[in-house]
């Protein structure tokens, strides 16, 4: 899983912008101090280039060079660089990976230097990067979950996407009947009509898939389930979690209102592609797909609140933070850069370019305004972020846990393993993996 998944156009190999050298080497000819900044998203890198150009004007003698390392290489290259002391002075991280570096004293605790600034940062992301009583990262981007919908398809089916609730008992379930009406076979029959052929579907109602952030954790949270208890995983021990995952898997394999996991397991963007092709009516996902939908959808679309479950609307808020290497040779300059990217002025290019919700709250209106000008109301994402939320997994080896669970849970979504059995095997594998 990629989190956040705002990674639409990654380069095929490591690309260095601005003549970067690793680890903040200085330019002897000019006497400048060079701070290196590493991230994995090529579009957002453009915004940082703009931001750092202004920083350098205000801080003569300090240059910031941006390293772009593709997601496919990022997490294999970073551990080696951190261990050898050749990592960038500042680098992006997600919650699945930062804990190990924090616990091994390989990061600067940014709260020591930027304690006053953190009041202006998105609190949910501050919480994600606070471990053992210390703040380790400056929030850069965040995303929450909402429901994209095809206006033509929902109007034709008479579905109101703003008022959909799922219920594993079926008593208060308005979502499944709507998804059936929105699923159509090649003969024009919907999934709630006699003769519907699940082998010849031309339009799906929903994007149920093994997508942890956009689907699985939201259903689990909105059913009152959990995924972790501290660092250990506990999802197989929670009846509400098992019930929620069973509901999602049934959307695919029993009710046939979502694409086959044979397609979505191997292509994380398959559901996005089907939505922009007009072949999925309801697409639950994050703002990281806004640009792709805006550019790819040839039909009117909108945003609605994510699905409501028995425990209410409960979505995942995730965030990317910038952390600093404890081995930086330029601590003072590095802190200045951290302070800059934690300010409204430093974060504004990210927001104003429409790339992502910025981690600095004062810069957030620029992102909202960008999309308002394009006729897109981001209120469902904002409401999701400020309502009841489900925590993304954290811990020093949570990434290893996820790697261990993924192939097992993919079998569950394919229908090759029962949900209860598969979750038990996945939990055992995950908890063994986090032991190291």
UniProtKB/TrEMBL annotation:
<keyword id="KW-0813">Transport</keyword>
<comment type="similarity">
    <text>Belongs to the bacterial solute-binding protein 1 family.</text>
</comment>
<dbReference type="GO" id="GO:0030313">
    <property type="term" value="C:cell envelope"/>
</dbReference>
<keyword id="KW-0732">Signal</keyword>
<dbReference type="InterPro" id="IPR050490">
    <property type="entry name" value="Bact_solute-bd_prot1"/>
</dbReference>
<protein>
    <submittedName>
        <fullName>Carbohydrate ABC transporter substrate-binding protein, CUT1 family</fullName>
    </submittedName>
</protein>
<dbReference type="InterPro" id="IPR006059">
    <property type="entry name" value="SBP"/>
</dbReference>
<feature type="signal peptide">
    <location>
        <begin position="1"/>
        <end position="24"/>
    </location>
</feature>
<dbReference type="Pfam" id="PF01547">
    <property type="entry name" value="SBP_bac_1"/>
</dbReference>
């Amino acid at each position: 899983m990629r989190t956040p998944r705002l990674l639409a156009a990654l380069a095929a190999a490591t690309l260095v912008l601005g003549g970067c050298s690793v680890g903040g080497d200085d330019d002897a000819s000019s006497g400048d101090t060079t701070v290196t900044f590493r991230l994995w998203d090529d579009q957002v890198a453009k915004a940082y280039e703009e931001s750092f150009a202004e920083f350098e004007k205000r801080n003569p003698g300090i240059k910031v060079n941006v390293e772009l390392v593709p997601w496919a290489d990022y997490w294999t290259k970073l551990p080696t660089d951190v261990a050898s002391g050749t990592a960038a002075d500042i680098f992006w991280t997600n919650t699945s990976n930062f804990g190990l570096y924090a616990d091994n004293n390989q990061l600067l605790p940014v709260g020591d230097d930027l304690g006053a600034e953190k009041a202006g940062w998105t609190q949910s992301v501050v919480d994600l990067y606070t471990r053992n009583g210390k703040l380790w990262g400056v929030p850069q981007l965040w995303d929450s979950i909402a429901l994209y919908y095809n206006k033509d398809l929902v109007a034709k089916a008479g579905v109101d996407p703003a008022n959909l609730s799922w219920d594993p008992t079926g008593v208060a379930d308005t979502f499944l009947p709507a998804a059936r009406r929105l699923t159509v076979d090649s003969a024009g029959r919907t999934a709630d009509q006699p003769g519907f052929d699940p082998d010849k579907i031309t339009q799906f109602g929903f994007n149920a898939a093994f997508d942890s952030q956009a689907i699985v954790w939201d259903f689990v949270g909105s059913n009152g389930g959990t995924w972790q208890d501290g660092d250990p995983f506990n999802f197989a021990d929670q009846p509400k979690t098992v019930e929620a995952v069973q509901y999602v898997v049934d959307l695919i394999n029993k009710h046939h209102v979502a694409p086959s996991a044979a397609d979505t397991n191997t292509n994380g963007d398959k559901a996005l592609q089907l939505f922009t092709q007009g072949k999925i009516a309801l697409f639950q996902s994050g703002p990281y797909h806004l640009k792709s939908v805006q550019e790819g959808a040839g039909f009117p679309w909108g945003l609605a609140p994510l699905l409501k479950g028995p425990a209410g609307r409960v979505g995942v808020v995730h965030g990317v933070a910038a952390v600093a290497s404890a081995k930086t040779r330029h601590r003072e300059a590095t802190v200045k850069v951290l302070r800059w990217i934690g300010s409204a002025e430093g974060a504004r290019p990210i927001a104003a370019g429409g790339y992502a919700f910025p981690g600095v709250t004062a810069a957030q209106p620029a992102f909202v305004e960008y999309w308002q000008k394009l006729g897109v109301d981001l209120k469902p994402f904002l409401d999701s972020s400020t309502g009841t939320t489900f925590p993304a997994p954290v811990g020093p080896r949570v990434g290893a846990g996820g790697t261990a669970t993924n192939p097992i849970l993919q079998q569950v979504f394919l229908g090759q393993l029962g949900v209860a059995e598969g979750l038990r095997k996945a939990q055992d594998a995950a908890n063994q993996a986090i032991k190291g």
